[in-house]
């Protein structure tokens, strides 16, 4: 151990305490050790007092001022502990000036201890800068143009860059070599680094593409059935995207999947202000037929349909007269059908509905008949895109149509249920049972 003597000492404080110990009869070697512990203890007490004053007094005062200020940015500095990280730097900076004094008797310890404090300072500055960037992020989120941007992804990239620079600086301090030597060795291991940080690199590239192309924003409703995601985007990070599903579960998918896989974004629907209805009523085909004159007169009582029936009947009568159609057979000439009038009624009913967008596509059409009947499809858009309101509007429309269909002598297709089959069996059994009972009674 290299122990300095009193003649080597360059610190007046150290030399004064050393002289006092020698006067009290302490040996030179013991005087150096005692002097080290005494001065180190005094330094720790001093740093503790400074830390207490700065953190408990200065930080509390600044926090109180920030809470009363009308400026929001200082509140973000407080919530992200920027003042606390700054307060931690002050004792470290002070200790740098006292290290040569405390370790004057052990000159070989000065450089390692100073290096250790410098490393702590590097990470202290990194934490302070990180808190500042987080405060900037929180402040930008209050701005209208940044609310839907993946700011967390950008912040994570900045954090990775800062910690990388800090690592290079610490490596240079510990080894005493130039940072460029470390970067050169890092280049040789680039293949391994690309493998280790593959997801981070892919996420970073995906975040840039997602933001540049405006593919997804925080708050968007997206669907990714392959990964069980169907809900609102609540967070976009460098590596992951968090989606809160409608059942309140959270689905997390890698950010790069937004680029490599397909997904549905409902933002266009929300921005357009109209949500599509695309639902069918399956009509029993055997219930479709021509209408008689009495049935047509009865349907004229439907106010929405009356003008159309009058106009259409005049057009049909004129055509049949011009073509001299034999009306003894309904197939000859032109006729009104209950299915056609029902379709026209749906068209007029939805056109008069206050919650249906008239400036968007409105269709009431027949689809290909199937074994489940003839589908009459409603294809239109509601004026309210909110999920619950949209479901109410659609349900009200179909409640009305399913109730009105019987006035057109039509039937909705329904597959036979077990109760239907059971009722047929019971009817047949009761008929046979009744006959058997009569026979037994006559025999008796």
UniProtKB/TrEMBL annotation:
Membrane topology listed for this record: Multi-pass membrane protein
Single GO biological process annotation from the record: cellular response to osmotic stress
Signal peptide residue numbers: none
MF annotations from Gene Ontology: mechanosensitive monoatomic ion channel activity
UniProt xrefs under Gene3D superfamilies: 2.30.30.60
UniProt protein name: Mechanosensing system component YbdG
Organism: Parapedobacter pyrenivorans
Protein location: Cell inner membrane
UniProt KW keywords: Cell inner membrane, Cell membrane, Membrane, Stress response, Transmembrane, Transmembrane helix
Pfam families registered for this protein in UniProt: MS_channel_2nd (PF00924)
Transmembrane segments: 33-54, 89-110, 116-133, 154-174, 180-197
Record domain Mechanosensitive ion channel MscS: where: 199-267
InterPro entries associated with the record: LSM_dom_sf (IPR010920), MscS_beta-dom_sf (IPR023408), MscS_channel_2nd (IPR006685), YbdG (IPR030192)
GO cellular component, one term: plasma membrane
PANTHER family according to UniProt: MINICONDUCTANCE MECHANOSENSITIVE CHANNEL YBDG
């Amino acid at each position: 151990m290299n122990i300095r003597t009193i003649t080597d000492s360059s610190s007046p404080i150290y030399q004064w305490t050393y002289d006092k110990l020698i006067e009290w009869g302490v040996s030179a070697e013991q005087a150096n050790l005692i002097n080290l512990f005494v001065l180190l203890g005094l330094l720790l007490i001093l740093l503790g007092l400074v830390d207490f004053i700065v953190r408990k007094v200065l930080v509390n005062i600044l926090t109180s001022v920030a809470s009363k200020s009308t400026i929001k940015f200082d509140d973000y500095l407080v919530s992200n502990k920027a003042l606390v990280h700054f307060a931690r730097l002050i004792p470290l900076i002070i200790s740098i000036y006292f290290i040569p004094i405390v370790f004057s008797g052990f000159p070989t310890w000065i450089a390692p201890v100073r290096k250790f404090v410098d490393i702590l300072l590097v990470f202290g500055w990194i934490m302070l800068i990180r808190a500042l960037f987080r405060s900037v992020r929180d402040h930008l989120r209050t701005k209208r143009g940044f609310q839907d941007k993946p700011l967390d992804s950008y912040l994570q990239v900045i954090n990775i860059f800062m910690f990388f620079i800090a690592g290079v600086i610490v490596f240079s301090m510990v080894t005493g070599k130039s940072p460029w030597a470390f970067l050169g060795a890092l280049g040789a291991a680039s293949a391994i680094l690309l493998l280790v940080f593959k997801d981070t690199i892919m996420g970073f590239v995906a975040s840039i593409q997602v933001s540049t192309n405006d593919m997804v924003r925080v708050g968007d409703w997206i669907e990714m059935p392959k990964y069980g995601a169907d809900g609102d985007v609540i967070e976009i990070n460098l590596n992951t995207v968090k989606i809160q599903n409608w059942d309140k579960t959270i689905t997390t998918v890698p950010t790069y999947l937004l680029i490599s896989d397909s997904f549905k974004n409902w933002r266009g629907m929300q921005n357009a202000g109209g949500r599509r209805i695309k639902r069918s009523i399956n009509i029993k085909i055997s219930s479709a037929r021509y209408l008689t004159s009495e049935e047509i007169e009865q349907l004229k009582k439907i106010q929405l349909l009356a003008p159309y029936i009058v106009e259409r009947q005049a057009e049909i009568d004129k055509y049949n007269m011009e073509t001299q159609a034999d009306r003894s057979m309904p197939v000859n000439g032109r006729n009104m059908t209950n299915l056609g009038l029902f379709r026209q009624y749906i068209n007029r009913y939805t056109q008069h509905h206050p919650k249906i967008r008239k400036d968007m596509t409105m269709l009431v059409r027949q689809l290909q008949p199937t074994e489940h009947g003839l589908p009459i499809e409603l294809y239109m858009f509601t004026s309210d895109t909110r999920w619950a309101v949209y479901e109410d509007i659609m349900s009200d429309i179909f409640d009305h149509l399913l109730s009105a269909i019987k006035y057109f002598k039509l039937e909705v297709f329904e597959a036979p249920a077990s109760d239907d089959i059971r009722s047929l069996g019971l009817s047949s059994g009761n008929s046979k049972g009744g006959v058997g009972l009569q026979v037994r009674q006559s025999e008796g």
